[in-house]
């Protein structure tokens, strides 16, 4: 309702500051969402590095190629999808708009793009599955300290038709995020139903044992949920085979992915362990300040292990040319985070649809005018790159 002009693919990117100015303080949750969506670790150095890395590569267009039959289509783990674009896992979507994860996963299914539900989601696994219908969907795990709880989540994800498990390794406590600290925003989850957890039978038993009624004491139960998956980590590399085998055992071998990889050493370790895929990601620059750009990490990692494991990417993508650069540098698939969460904040379900349809249109037109017919055309030769500075 607030935005009349919605004509650019990067609408959410450019409109959000105005939107926030116009709506500042209208609801307590509004401010929470505003700060939480935008906060970066420390001085935002990693976020800036993520963005700058894209400018060091430029696309080389080719002329007089018939691109009338071009296609953005691809496959991910044997699922045919509209484009190599997925919805990155983002927690507590109802902070941004009451329509929450159900609306987002519905749009993902409509557009035939994979959707990834976060462990910190504010809508249950089962409700998301029902909204997503026949869509391709993944479940992102923040691994609980309690194995019985982990098994319960994996079983629910399997029963609800989630096609892959994505374990996030970079966030077992939130990074030092200046905007959140300054706005005392770290209490955000207390006001919010962490429904992925609150609807879990094992977690509900744990709540009752602690004298918490999860249907009444939503604040206490949500806080306990976050404490069950973050705030100290009871596991490390040694635990990965157990998790991977447990997931594969429950699902009959559905893919197991690790998200948050930035070093070649860690990527090699994933290959050695037999992990199906990795997401090269630095969590949009929200965890380690002053860290390497995710795009630079991608280039190194794809060179080292791209032939041996399914390499995916996220962090900093704001338009189709960023996407194409990541694919040209060796990613097979790219996830989008802030673009759609901004769309959800500004205009709910329609905002998400607009942002993602615009990104698809941006990609289609870019391919047309630059002379690319399909994702197989994206390789190192289509880039002019500045000398490596790492
Ligand atoms: C995230 N991200 C994230 N990742 C994850 O594995 N589980 C989660 O719950 C969240 N939550 C979350 C909230 C918000 C507000 C943001 C911005 C990000 C990280 C996310 O999946 C992804 O890695 C980045 O958002 C990708 O970078 P861009 O596209 O946002 O630049």
UniProtKB/TrEMBL annotation:
Keywords: Flavoprotein, FMN, Oxidoreductase. This is FMN hydroxy acid dehydrogenase domain-containing protein. The active site is at residue 283. Residues 36-388 form the FMN hydroxy acid dehydrogenase domain. FMN binds at residues 89-91, 118, 140, 168, 259, 281, 314-318, 337-338. It holds the Pfam family FMN_dh. InterPro entries: Aldolase_TIM (IPR013785), Alpha-hydoxy_acid_DH_FMN (IPR012133), FMN-dep_DH (IPR000262), FMN_HAD (IPR037396). One of its GO terms (molecular function) is FMN binding. Transmembrane segments: none annotated. Glyoxylate binds at residues 36, 142, 177, 283, 286. Its cofactor is FMN. Belongs to the FMN-dependent alpha-hydroxy acid dehydrogenase family.
């Amino acid at each position: 309702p607030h935005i009349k002009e919605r004509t650019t693919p990067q609408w959410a990117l450019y409109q959000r500051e105005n939107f926030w100015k116009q709506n500042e303080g209208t609801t307590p949750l509004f401010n929470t969402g505003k700060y939480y969506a935008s906060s970066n670790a420390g001085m935002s150095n990693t976020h800036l590095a993520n963005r700058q890395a894209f400018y060091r590569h430029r696309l080389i267009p080719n002329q007089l190629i018939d691109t009338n039959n071009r296609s953005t289509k691809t496959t991910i783990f044997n699922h045919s999808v509209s484009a190599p674009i997925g919805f990155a896992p983002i927690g507590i979507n109802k902070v941004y708009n009451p329509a929450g994860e159900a609306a987002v996963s519905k749009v993902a299914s409509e557009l035939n793009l994979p959707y990834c539900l976060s462990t910190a989601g504010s809508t249950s696994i089962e409700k998301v599955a029902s909204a997503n219908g026949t869509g391709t969907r993944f479940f992102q795990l923040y691994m609980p300290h309690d194995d019985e709880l982990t098994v319960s989540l994996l079983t629910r994800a399997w029963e609800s038709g989630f096609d892959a498990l994505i374990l996030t390794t970079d966030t077992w406590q939130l990074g030092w995020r200046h905007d959140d600290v300054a706005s005392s925003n770290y209490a955000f989850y207390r006001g919010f139903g962490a429904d992925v957890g609150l609807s879990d039978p094992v977690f509900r038993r744990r709540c009752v044992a602690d004298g918490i009624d999860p249907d009444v004491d939503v604040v206490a139960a949500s806080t306990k949920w976050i404490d069950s998956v973050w705030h100290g980590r009871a596991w490390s590399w040694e635990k990965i085979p157990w998790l991977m085998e447990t997931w594969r055992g429950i699902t009959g071998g559905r893919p197991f992915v690790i998200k948050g990889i930035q070093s070649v050493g860690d990527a090699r370790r994933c290959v050695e362990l037999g992990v199906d895929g990795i997401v090269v990601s630095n969590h949009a620059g929200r965890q380690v300040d002053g860290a390497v750009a995710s795009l630079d990490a991608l280039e190194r990692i794809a060179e080292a292990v791209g032939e041996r494991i399914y390499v995916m990417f996220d962090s900093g993508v704001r338009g189709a040319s960023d996407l194409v650069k990541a694919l040209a540098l060796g990613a097979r698939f790219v996830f989008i985070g802030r673009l759609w969460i901004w769309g959800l904040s500004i205009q709910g379900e329609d905002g998400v649809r607009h942002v993602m349809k615009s990104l698809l249109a941006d990609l289609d037109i870019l391919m047309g005018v630059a002379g690319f017919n399909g994702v197989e055309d994206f390789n190192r030769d289509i880039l002019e790159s500045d000398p490596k500075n790492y």
